[in-house]
């Protein structure tokens, strides 16, 4: 269960998004809304990366009261990730494994699925946007997350990588992992069921 209570996100005193009370059961959710509606701001707040007012609870863990435990069950991939250029992909992956946990075989399978083994030892500053995007997705699936937040997961990916991403969402969802997806690209052909959430007039609501 993911719960938001009296949630508000503002920038410089301007309210961007509010969610009075929302409880999401296990599942896959597609967040829709126009540019600037607050979709990314919502996901970043749920990921624990930006301040907000109100309460966010995932799997019974309050994001503020036990942030370490919360961050081990809530994973995140940014729309256009940027990482320190002096690190290698292997460096960053190992950091995530040390903090998030996860098995070596499962991680190796993710790298193989996205075809990343040939350049993982290169500095991130030399990577293309598509290569970096694949790494962000691998990092989002690392460990034992209960919720995975993917902001525009399909952009900058080639067709094969897009299919891999959607396949992994379906496979992980089948094992009980839940997802919040923000995407302007259609998910109509995705091999998993999802519920749509709309961001409209600064409020997040279910589509009836």
From TrEMBL:
Swiss-Prot/TrEMBL keywords: ATP-binding, Nucleotide-binding, Transport
Gene3D superfamilies xrefs: P-loop containing nucleotide triphosphate hydrolases (3.40.50.300)
Span of domain ABC transporter: 2-208
Domain of life of the source: Bacteria
InterPro entries in the cross-refs: ABC_transporter-like_ATP-bd, ABC_Transporter_VariousFunc, P-loop_NTPase
Name of the protein: ABC transporter domain-containing protein
Organism of provenance: Flaviaesturariibacter amylovorans
């Amino acid at each position: 269960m993911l719960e938001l209570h009296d949630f508000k996100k503002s920038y410089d005193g301007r309210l961007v998004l509010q969610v009075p009370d929302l409880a999401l059961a296990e599942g896959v959710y597609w967040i829709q809304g126009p540019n600037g509606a607050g979709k990314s701001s919502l996901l970043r707040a749920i990921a624990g990366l930006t301040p907000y007012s109100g309460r966010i609870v995932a799997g019974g863990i309050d994001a503020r009261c036990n942030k370490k435990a919360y961050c081990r069950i809530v994973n995140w991939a940014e729309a256009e990730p940027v990482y320190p250029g002096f690190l290698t992909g292997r460096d960053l992956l190992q950091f995530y494994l040390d903090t998030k946990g996860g098995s070596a075989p499962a991680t190796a399978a993710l790298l193989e699925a996205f075809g990343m083994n040939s350049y993982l030892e290169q500095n991130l500053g030399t990577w293309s946007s598509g290569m970096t995007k694949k790494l962000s997705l691998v990092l989002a699936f690392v460990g034992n997350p209960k919720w995975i937040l993917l902001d525009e997961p399909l952009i900058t990916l080639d067709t094969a990588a897009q299919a891999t991403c959607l396949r992994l969402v379906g496979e992980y969802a089948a094992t009980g992992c839940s997802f919040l997806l923000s995407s302007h690209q259609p998910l109509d052909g995705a091999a998993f069921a999802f519920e749509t959430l709309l961001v409209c007039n600064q409020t997040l609501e279910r589509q009836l």
